[in-house]
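REQUEST ID: PR-0412
SUBMITTED BY: lab tech R.K.
PRIORITY: routine
TASK: structure prediction, single protein chain
INPUT:
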Amino acid sequence: MIMLVSFWWWFGLVFLMLRCAFAFLFVLIGSLSGAADIAFQSPSGNIRCDMSRDTLLSVRCELGVDQQSYTNRPTSCEGDWGTSFGLRQTGTGLVVCATDAVPAPEDRPVLPYGRRAILDGITCRSERSGVTCTNIEGGGFEVRRAEQRIF
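STATUS: complete
OUTPUT:
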């Protein structure tokens, strides 16, 4: 009887450990994939944004039209310059040297004008003129068709 109880106790323990290991791997693979926690586009489809936890940038928005306010590409940038903007939870907004693109508009929901998306202290607001994202320190960026601004 004691051996039978001991066997089931050990079996249960091993089963629990395997479940924990698989859960850890699932979370790890999910965080490595770079999938956004919140993804949206402007109603016009001209601006696409990804808001993510556990990434270097908490939010990144990409402008589809090439009317750039930031045209002086740094020599260190070998990607696209002036159409992608990022923000961390602290500090000012950034112009991003992008070597990849935010996925196409068909793949993401629309954030209607006047609505906000909020994730971990970052707020992005959709307006008729464009998208504005800010962090808890007041840093951020505005992405508009005619003009972009970091602050």
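NOTES: The beta strands are 38-41, 47-51, 59-63, 84-87, 94-95, 116-119, 122-127, 130-134, 140-144, 148-150.
REVIEWED BY: pending
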